[in-house]
Amino acid sequence: DSRVAILEINTIPGMTDLSDLPAQCAAMGMDYDTLVQTLLMSAVYKPVNVSRQAVSHA
Length: 58
Fold this sequence. Notes:
Radius of gyration: 13 Å
Strand content: under 5%
Helix content: 25-40%
Distance between the termini: 22 Å
Number of helices: 2
């Protein structure tokens, strides 16, 4: 599936079992452990020395 889903715009989302981000992921079928692992892996494998470019979401 190549669709992009934006679940939470908050840059510091709550991560308790009652917070919105884990609840939204659960509604998509993603359990809490997978959510945390996905966040950690995306931080670990973040490219370095990549310039940021403006993105239009119009």
